[in-house]
Amino acid sequence: xxxxxxERTAKLAEKRQELGxxxxxxxxxxxxxxxxxxxxxxxxIEEVSEAVQLMVINAKADxxxxxxxxxxxxxxxxxxxxxxxxxxxxxxxxxxLGETKNRATIWRLIAHxxxxxxxxxxxxxxxxxxxxxxxxxxxxxxxxAGFAESLQMDAKDDSASG
Length: 162
Description:
The chain is mainly alpha-helical. The chain folds into 2 domains: 12-129, no CATH class; 130-162, no CATH class. The chain has helices spanning 5-19, 32-42, 48-58, 84-96, 102-120, 136-161, and strands at residues 22-29, 75-82. The chain contains 6 helices and 2 strands. The longest helix is centred in the C-terminal third of the chain and has 26 residues, at 136-161.
């Protein structure tokens, strides 16, 4: 029998707490959520948290235009979850931009990415990959360990068949 919604929600909340994820809510000018939805559609991203996180990771304060003028009127709320490292990165980006509130940074990121269009905004949604380089010493040790393990396996096979 499938778990009920309450159970799934409770398990998800418990997992988020274990991982140190915190829900963030940003009040942004009306239309910002629609821009975010379009960006997510363009770049085939299903989770708001993932889209916002990728923008925060890939954005550079120097590349963002000045803040658009503040707009009075109806608002949207952007809800997402960030772990501590991402909250720190967002705080750093906010400070670099000279903003005092994270919501202003989120708004600027979304508005800027949307203004770039589908192709030019793609770099903001790339998943960063780590470049792993193995030194010759480490490669040699791995090779020796693999050789030793294969000898042990051969010895076990010989004793089992003999």
